[in-house]
Amino acid sequence: MIRLFEYEGKALLARNGVPVPSGSLFPELPSCGGRLVVKAQVLSGGRGKAGGIQFATNASEVGAVAATLIGKTLGSALVESVYVEECLDIAREYYLCAMVDRDDGQPLILASPEGGVDIEEVPAEKILRRKVDPLIGLRPYVVDEVVRFLAPPEEAADQLRAVVVALYQALEKEDAELLEINPLVLTAAGLLVAADAKCVLDEDASYRQRAQRRQIDGTPFEVAARNLGTIGIEFEGNIAAIMNGAGMTMATLDQLVSLGGRIRALVELHGAMAHGPERIAEVIRLVNTLNPKVLLLNFYFQFRPLDTIASGLHLATQRGWLPPTCRVVVRFRGEREQLARSILKGLDCTVVSSFEEACKLTVRHATTAADSK
Ligand code: GDP
Ligand code: MN
Questions:
Q1: H/E run at residue 57
Q2: 183 CB within 6 A, ligand 1
């Protein structure tokens, strides 16, 4: 999945014929005069409520507002850029979306006269859902249905028709999974304009598209994990676990959770082992920035050497990357196990070979009162 920032999404919509406000990425300013809207560019929605949408009337105000936004976090996302647009004089806000329905494997058009709010908050009867047969395409009667359902003023009906058609064609042409306009604004002057854009493209189709800047969602931890060549997922519990392979990762997650454990983070090494103990140590360091109470290293290797992991843990300990408050449980089984265990001798960790035992011990440590190590 490739998520686009709002400004990238609007460029996509614009090149497919959907009208968007004139805008530029700060510090550039749009050429229009008058009131401006300053929008934090993060991949999550709900920026309006979180203070990520501000207004300004001139360049120096834009600069001041941008300075308050850039470098701040909105939800869990760091604001790295700000988009400046002409401020629309809003008469009405609609919701319009074209997406591929995964359950159906078919495109779907969603429309609501209640735009501008989170679509999850809109009652079902206020949302029109129409499947589209991809082999037939979007039929005019479906477009008419959308227009009737949104019931814009007479003079905006043709504009709306054109936007619905353009949006559907863009979904197809751009290999998008989701193109959502919320709100689609009718201005006081009677123009229909996409005031926001949420676009998700199908990553598997990227070979068909011109080079796209890839944006994948994630917390700073998850992004840092990716930069180490691993897959990291962050939660709110107190157990961190490092494994190799998706199967082992899922099994460990299931086991820990079924024993009553709460996960702080999971890291699937995903080939990072090829970079040696240094990289393993970096992963351990990263995981410990989340302050887990217990760190579980769960490895059953039939082909790879366990001592790479052991050396990584050894390095991390030497460098002080493991806080003394964090208990470490290691499950080692398989290739070069004896060597791996000998590397861990003298380190403050418990080494076991059974999967169940390792998970039980981990959960027990995580749930025992206080931080008495
Ligand atoms: P989101 O909260 O992340 O979905 O950001 P949006 O771009 O959808 O903006 C949220 C809300 O801010 C919109 O529903 C509008 O009510 C308001 N807003 C955004 N752009 C404009 C604008 O140009 N003019 C006015 N008056 N309001 C705007
Ligand atoms: Mn929006």
A1: none
A2: yes
151-161 pLDDT, tens per residue?
A: 999 999 999 99
Alpha-carbon distance of 304 to 243, in angstroms, equals 13
DSSP assignment letter at 259:
T
pTM above 0.70, yes or no: no
Test site for ligand 1: of 53, 96, 112, 186, most ligand atoms within 8 A of the Cβ: 53
278 alpha carbon – ligand 1 mean position (Å)? 47
On whether the CB atoms of residues 22 and 84 are closer than 8 A, the answer is no
HSE-CB at 95 with a 13 A cutoff on CA atoms is 20
Q: What is the 196 CA–ligand 2 centroid distance (Å)? A: 5
11-35: b or e for each residue (b if 16 or more CB lie within 10 Å)?
bbbbebebbbbebeebeebbeeeee
pLDDT of residue 373: 45
C-alpha 233/C-alpha 235 separation (Å) is 7
The structure tokens 């994630």 sit at 218
Span from the CA of 206 to the centroid of ligand 1 (angstroms): 30
Residue type, 332: F
pLDDT in tens, 3-24: 999 999 999 999 999 999 999 9
> What is the average pLDDT across 111-120?
95
Name residues whose C-beta falls within 8 Å of residue 119's C-beta, 6 or more positions apart in sequence: 95, 97, 110, 112, 127, 180, 182
Classify 241 as helix, strand or coil: strand
